[in-house]
Write a structure and sequence with these properties.
single chain; alpha/beta; 8 helices
Length: 252
């Protein structure tokens, strides 16, 4: 039987600003990547999101990003490996405090946005991030772009890793995500998203924007919590995968 984890980026509201439908989406996913205050989130939002995830039986992960609230962590920054290490340790620690205070355990770490995409190609950044995760807790799972440098570096350092694919994003021939600056970066319809995800999970294939099939290993599927159709996608993906005989469970 096929088995897959469904994860969602959550806890991205902050202050007076509300982003996403966290409470509703948690009914349809198995892992939550919770923002840690740099690209989004704040202490109160982190606490509330951790409690909501636990109430729904959803595994919790830290979602560390670049210190860029205005750009939502999706703009590249020229940071050193040491800065990346420090940022990741700091943010894991922030969320860990809330998870620990609820008597729970953190499952994973998934870098956010530009940090994630930069690390997917940079061995230096990947090593810094993987080392940060390992030194905080070697039992944490490192989520990274399927087939990317981040995943392979994590494996080499001794971490359990999860190859991640994206429900609503298109791919380039080299397996990278199409830049959000491009008009074809996002998959726009529910029908296309379901077809896209089912093929990746069952066949391990996706058609790149260059029209050529590429292979992708899929351990976990990401749904962006800030997307306009996030709730609809989460519900439809879960229902369609289960109808196809695919088991939806948190990554192990």
């Amino acid at each position: 039987m096929f088995r897959i984890d469904l994860n969602c980026d959550l806890g991205e509201s902050f202050g007076a600003y509300k982003v996403g439908l966290d409470e509703e989406i948690l009914s349809f996913v198995t892992s939550a990547n919770i923002a840690c205050g740099f690209h989004a989130g704040d202490p109160s939002v982190m606490r509330k999101t951790v409690k909501l995830a636990l109430e729904n039986g959803v595994a919790i992960g830290a979602h560390p990003g670049l210190p860029d609230l205005i750009g939502f962590g999706r703009r590249n920054m020229n940071i050193s490996a040491q800065e990346a290490y420090d940022m990741v340790v700091y943010q894991i620690g922030a969320l860990y405090g809330f998870v620990k205070s609820e008597g729970a355990k953190m499952q994973h770490v998934k870098p956010h946005g530009a940090l994630y995409n930069m690390a997917a190609k940079s061995k230096e950044l990947s090593e810094a991030i993987a080392e940060a995760v390992y030194k905080v807790d070697p039992e944490l799972v490192l989520f990274g772009l399927s087939g990317s440098e981040l995943v392979y570096v994590g494996e080499r350092i001794g971490l359990q890793t999860a190859h991640e694919v994206f429900a609503d994003r298109t791919y380039q021939l080299d397996g990278s995500l199409t830049s959000r600056n491009q008009p074809d970066a996002l998959i726009q319809t529910n029908k296309q998203v379901i077809s896209h995800v089912k093929r990746i999970v069952k066949e391990g294939k996706v058609k790149s924007q260059q029209g050529v099939d590429i292979s992708l290993k899929a351990d976990t599927v990401c749904i962006h919590g800030d997307g306009a159709h996030a709730l609809q996608y989460a519900k439809s993906i879960k229902e369609s995968l289960e109808a196809a005989g695919i088991s939806i469970k948190a990554f192990k």
